Amino acid sequence: MVKHSPLDDRSTSDIAWARYRRLMRGMALVSFAAVIIALAWLRYTLGDQFTIHMVIATAAGVGLSVMLGAALMGLVFLSSGSGHDEAIEDPFADDPDMNHDR
Fold first, then answer.
1. What is the C-alpha to C-alpha distance for residues 34 and 63, in angstroms, rounded to an integer?
2. How does pLDDT run across 78-88, given as a tens digit for each residue?
């Protein structure tokens, strides 16, 4: 039987997802700052060789990388902080080969 997850409760779920959205808004600002810093550094070091294609590639690469990392880590924090991780049923709980590290 599947255990009850705290995320099944509407009020707990609303709080957890609101915290996740707040984290993502903050990380969007961090991502924007990282893009600006990367573009400024490239402009300083490359001078006239700094093209629009490099601006687009750098903005997409740096910005999306920071946001992807933030989204994935935010989901880990959401799962752990809401108690959802404790709601799983461990299929290997009785396996003697899997319990050597506990």
1. 7
2. 887 777 767 67
